[in-house]
Amino acid sequence: MSETVTGDPARDAVARRVTELVRLVPDYPQPGVLFRDITPLLADARAFADVVTAMASVAGEVDLVAGMEARGFLLAAPVATALGAGLVPVRKAGKLPGPTASATYALEYGEAEIEIHPATITPGARVLVVDDVLATGGTAAATVGLLRSCGADVVGLSFLVELAGLGGRAHLPGLAVDTVVTVD
Questions:
Q1: What is the pLDDT of residues 55-73, one digit of tens each?
Q2: Which end of the chain is more exposed for a tag (fewer CB within 10 A), N or C?
Q3: Pick the catalytic residue: 36, 71, 115, 162?
């Protein structure tokens, strides 16, 4: 995995550390998939703190941070704390009690559904969406649509790693998308 060079020495150092710590696992969870295991990064307190700072630094003023299940929760919660914002978990269908709003989206091998509690979104709330990996963009686009349907103003998305060759950004037109590391 090679990191993006931004010209900002501090951010480039964070990207290099992410590249060193994210473990590549071939053929997981199925043959042909190269899984990015972020657990070594999470276990390194300094690197984890630096990633949170980098991801929060692009947000500006936000009211809420939306974290996508499941590894997005691990990054979104500390980013929300760093920004003084609330947290909205974006869950897989059937994981939240009470009234929910949902969105269904296509995967390369079927469909998936995500849900949020719409009562947690004040109309006009400025929301940053956070996740670990931007791949094809389907989950991120569904999350943006779901948040907007609840009245949110999605101000941007922040990812730890972008798999640029999968074209996920194309599904997020007009949105500010930031990544700590971009790989082909």
A1: 999 999 999 999 999 999 9
A2: C
A3: 71
pLDDT band at 167 (very low <50, low <70, confident <90, very high): very high
- Amino acid identity at 17: R
Contact 181, 160 (CB under 8 A): yes
What mean pLDDT do residues 93-120 have?
A: 92
Burial grade of 134 (CB within 10 A; 0-12, 13-18, 19 or more): buried
Read off the pLDDT of residues 11-57 as tens digits, 9 standing for 90 and up: 999 999 999 999 999 999 889 889 999 999 999 999 999 999 999 99
Known catalytic residue at 108 = yes
Q: Which residues pair with 133 in a beta bridge?
A: 161
DSSP state string for 58-75:
T--S-SEEEEETTHHHHH
Peptide bond into 173 cis (omega under 30): no
Q: Which helix H or strand E contains 42, and what residues bound it?
A: helix 39-43
Q: Reply yes or no on whether 71 is catalytic.
A: yes
Q: Which region, left, alpha or beta, applies to residue 60 given φ > 0 means left and ψ of -120 to 50 means alpha?
A: left
